[in-house]
Amino acid sequence: MAERRGDMPPEARDMLDKYAEGTRIMFEGARARTGQTPKEIVWTKNKARLYRYEPTVEKKYPVPILMVYALINKPYVLDLMPGNSLVEYLVSQGYDVYLLDWGIPGDEDKDLSFDDYILDYLRPATKRVLRTSRATEYTLFGYCMGGTMAAMYAALFPDEALKNLILLTAPIDFAPEKTGLLGLWTDEKYLDLDLLVESFGNVPSEIVDNAMQMLRPVTNYVGTYVTMWERILEEKPMETWEAMNKWVKDGTPFPGAAFKQWIGDFYQQNKLVKSEIRLRGRKIDLSNVTCPLLNIAGKKDHICPLPQAEPTTDLVSSEDKEFFVLDAGHVGLLTGRSAKKHLWPKVKSWLEERSGNEG
Amino acid sequence: MTKEVKTREAAGSPTDDDKRYPDPYGLYRRWFNTSEDVRDEANGDTISSAELGELWKRWFEATAGLQSRALETEDRFLGNLSPLWTEMAEDASAEMLSEETLPEDPLRFFLRWYNDTNERWSQAADELLRREKVLESTGHFFETYARSHRELRRASEEGLKNLQIPTRSDVARVARLVVVVENKVDRVEEALEEFIYGDSEPATAGAVGSLEERMNRLEDKMDLILAALEKLGAGDDPDSEETPREPTTEKGRRAIKESSADRKEASGIKAGGLGYS
User: Fold this and answer.
1) How far is B209 from chain A (nearest CA, A)?
2) Is A220's Cβ below 8 Å from some Cβ in B?
3) pTM of this prediction?
């Protein structure tokens, strides 16, 4: 076989190699080293881990940042790969960065709800951040569903320790006309929520992933691989594509009780904007949020469309607030060339005025 | 064969010398070559674009048309995609021929086709996914899927139980117990940390001593006040000096106790000393 390959003209051999690479990725899945910024675990609870990223430069700001991600997929999208990581960028700018990773829920976690995640996980994590950094204030940064959770937390504990709130594509208003296809699919008419949770316990990641991909089936199921083949044929670097593809397919199950709340209370009944969400009896009223707010959304976001994120700015009582719109999609605004040019510098400049520069 | 086609062959297809290995795109190449032969035979090298388009249209009718008819016989909602498919197939063929070179292999052909048509496909898919019938079908699918999963799980759990093999639910139950224990340990840890790092500090001997000192000072003041009050009252009481009142504060009582003990001790020493001597 090797002999026959050796006999081939170079163009044919080259083409064969490219085909082999593409086929390998399609069948075996993307391989990429993600989440490479050095970090240490400073707190754990059940499956959750609180990471503190090791500083690469001298700390310039006394206010640490706590990043909170969604309950689905994995949070390493915030630290995708060297040179393409928001975490790495903020650390290099002198920020003390923490990331709360909810972990992968097991069958025993099917009863975990937002009440548990916010009161029993996020609350102690914020305390741990303050203690570890010996700080009195912190910035809460929530992405996607993590942003919704961060907003709820800020409404519940608007204490003096919460210095800033950054929400990145955080769905808040779930009115049917604003939720797009996801709103249609989760309509009570078509989705038997109780049956789904009762049957599966935790909702399998495959269901959640496919639902997300079906929002744009042609782009996600075909276009992604078209891009892959084009990059291979044009001999462009594949690392970022592989890292992103790995992340997209690296889902986690959605804890049953939390899924029921997310679809039932948020998508189906839009309780958050009506201040009807209660966590262990404590009412979530977004008007309690008084700290400075940076609310970021993407024009091309189909998971959290712009109209879902925009109302937050009006719902909070903060005097210092800004709604910042980027011409990007749900993940595109966080990683890649456009993110480096627009999102990262924006977060940095907004924060440095509000994080008590020590330098 | 025209010169242009020969150039294409040089770039993408095996030459006579290289034909020792199987050409993976043989069929694909033959397809393009045949269509070009037809073109050459019918019109020589001077075929007009309109005629070329007509030829391609015929070709697509034979291939894409089949697909479109197949779609029509599918479910009603998919049938609606048929005109779109035909339209896009025609556009793609025109687009393909307007390029200077033909794609070298089926993959490149597909990529070019996708880039020319993906927007319309996306739009069509979006419209399709919003249709009531599709939403209903998806709902039914999930319901059936969930029910089958539940029944399958129930049956396998039952079977494993009969075989006395621990099931996933059993493991989850044990794991839940572990989580409960872990939570309790966490609470103890938190309480300890609150104690160590929080506002509460252990009472040291120094802290207790200083507290005692402050208490003493307070009691001194109280005694002084009481003594002054007693003196004030003594003006009306002639026996007041003979019957001194018990001090009110603990310190006062302690001082009297100590002074009387001192007196006893002093007198004892005296007496003893005398007796001894």
Assistant:
1) 31
2) no
3) 0.75
